[in-house]
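The passage that follows is intended for readers who have already worked through the single-chain material. We present the inputs for a multi-component assembly, then the predicted structure in tokenized form, and finally a short commentary. You are encouraged to pause after the input and sketch how you expect the pieces to fit together before reading on.
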Amino acid sequence: MNFLSRMPSWIGRHLAAIRVVVVLTVLVGLVYPLGMTAIAQVPGLRNQAHGSELAAGGSKLIGQSFLDKEGAPIPSYFQPRPSNAGTGYDASASAAGNLGPESTVDVLPVKGQPDSGKQSLLTQVCARSKAVGELEHVDGSRPYCTSDGVGAVLGVFRDGGTTGRATRVVSLDQACPARPFLASYEGVTVECARPGADYSKAVVTPVRGDAPAHPKVPADAVTASAGGLDPHISPAYATLQTPRVARERGMSEAAVRRLVGEYTSGRGLGVLGELAVNVVQLNAALDRMHPVKVA
Amino acid sequence: MYAWLQASLILAVVVGLHVPLGDYMARVLDGGPHRRAERALYKVCGVDPDREQDWRHYLFALLAFSLMSIAALFALFTLQGKLPWSTGHEGMPWRLALHTAVSFITNTSWQNYAGESTTGHLAVMAGLGVQAFASAAVGICAALALVRGLVRRDTDRLGNFWVDLIRTIFRVIVPLSIVSGIVLIALGVPQNLGGAHTVTTVAGGQQTLLGGPVGSWEPIKLMSGDGGGVFNASSAHPFENPSAYTNAIEIVLMLLIPTAFIRTYGRLIGSLRQSWTLLAVVGILFGLLLAVGSLAQSAHNGTVTEAVGGQYEGTETRFGIPGSTLFGVAATGSADGAANASYDSFSSIGGGALLSAMMLGEIAPGGTGSGLYGLIVAVMIAVFVGGLMVGRTPEYLRKRIGFPEMRFVVLYALVAPTTILGCSALAVALGDGPSSMGNPGPHGLTELVYAYTSNVNSNGSAMAGFNGATDFHNLLMAAAMLIGRYVPMVFLLALAGRLARQQPGVVTVGTLQARGVNFVALATGAALILALLNFLPALSLGPLAEGLL
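Having made your guess, compare it with the prediction:
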């Protein structure tokens, strides 16, 4: 077969391919999604198709933040989980933190440049736990956390590199002039960390400390969700917040608990997923039934 | 307890549905009359549906279609700003557009961008949507050609690519998408053409909510093995996956077609026993991955995990840790690449289980079509090794698996490991790898190896702390995806062509039967050992080092 007689089949094949692409674009790229959009207008689907709007504002499915203008939690509302979507619950920027289970060492911000640092996941967890503990008046301590709410992580310099005698010990997540969470380690005085210093030769050694294995602040209160838009919290976190919300709104705790129960979704078919309290709907219901009296 | 009940229930539904769907696919995909509407389509496209192709022409048609699809998608992305329904998004820069076009044509759908800030409705519907249907169908086409090679005798004809493509899309994927799409919309997935709108929140703040054709995208994203999200968070976004029910449905959708296609295979070769054998292999591999993943995710290893009291970081409350782990194993095992959690924040060994699911070659149950042909290749290796071990003639379905056939099988099996390890090594050596890592130490290496494993194996899931949005990674990943998807197909179709020309042998007592407990163990072992030999060093430096140190 010579070159010339092959050409037409070569071209023909690609022409057919282009036509198939065009036909598919029309049928499954336009007719299918537009048809589905039309079907979605029927009653029973319409509300969901338009994003499950909530009368009080927003969507039942998308988490919201309940912070005041200064970024502090508004105490009369149930607080959602931490969020990595934008600056927090930015529904146009869903995102996860993507830090792994051994993300323990902070990059401490250099003086004058507060944005130059990067918190490790451990410090984020410790800081959140401390803040939630203070808000709810419970013990916010956790394993591997210092009492000032950062990771309890030592950088240990050893004379043999990774083995041998400790020669110098730095508390990596505690920026000077903080007082290290341990006075000494293996007989060596622990230093605070100087921002910008190079501790990469030190062996990273997290210290568990004596915090209880089951902290008072629930796990979902100190961890961000995968999309940053999780509208739910665990029943445990709702229980922790109930006294505060009841107090702030002048309600009985039993009444708040009843509402929490109403907005708790059970496991699907008894086995699917987890129990979850929808904070957005719960807070909207609280506002509807027991509005906070403006002082 | 709930974790295992949930997994059992979901997997039971998949196994239950795979029988009727697999039988239906066997009826409509191979042979039988054309429908009138299909004839019209073939006419418009200028193809003759009744002329079958040999392996070369089948491959040429497949490649021509893929090439034209890349061109069309590339044009759509770069010109987005000038087209309607762009919802205010500009065109992509060319390197990103090239990467994304290749990514969706190869059924990978790795995204080096956040959906909500980059792609408008038209790009989702007419771009990603079309290629999700098409790339899934291309995988099925390649598998059908291989199956015909095994079934047919003394011929060089392997079917007609265009017919296989159109039938897969319109007889299988579209009807399933419509049905499951309506169910998902009813359960809360939005389906509209609205743009971003700002609302006042309950506490009096402002929030910008997005709309989009999510309900029509979701089923095809999951069934096709595609997995890319309309939104950055993909199936962790409450609009893409609003409840535990939708989560269960999405897992079923990911596993459904690849599992059913094993049944289809059994029907086409006339041996349902063979399809149950393969399903047993798939079940064991999937069960292993799920068991390792679930145990690792529920054991509190890892400093942060212990501080938190569980593997909660990066999981959604409504799914829980078991619902996220099952989704992850299903997504990486089925070449889907969707995510309902941050895989980067999984425990070290849990993340390692996801990585291993891809490194196995995505055969548990694998992508649409690609899962089956990967599985058949693993079976051929088992037949060959088993045959040599006991001194029997290596044959499979009465076709000799001799040296020329094994050459193609081995070449097929070598493409993914060499490309994955080669690209990872290149990225590390040139410094573009380490600078893109989002986590320090072994976890960073896991992210990098995960990225290239996902790209080469057409998965698309990510440990998203890894920043792939650089020129270097956009281009290297595009190359990795093209090699990982099409080079194995070349060997596969060549193998199919060779097998089709063979006269079937006679079954004798000396023939190793590809069934029974022994064979299941042999095939499972072959798949595991092959993957372990290739990837154990990389796994020990990444997830194993992180988990054990």
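Commentary: The first helix of chain B runs from residue 2 to 29. Residues 2-548 of chain B form one domain. How closely did your sketch match?
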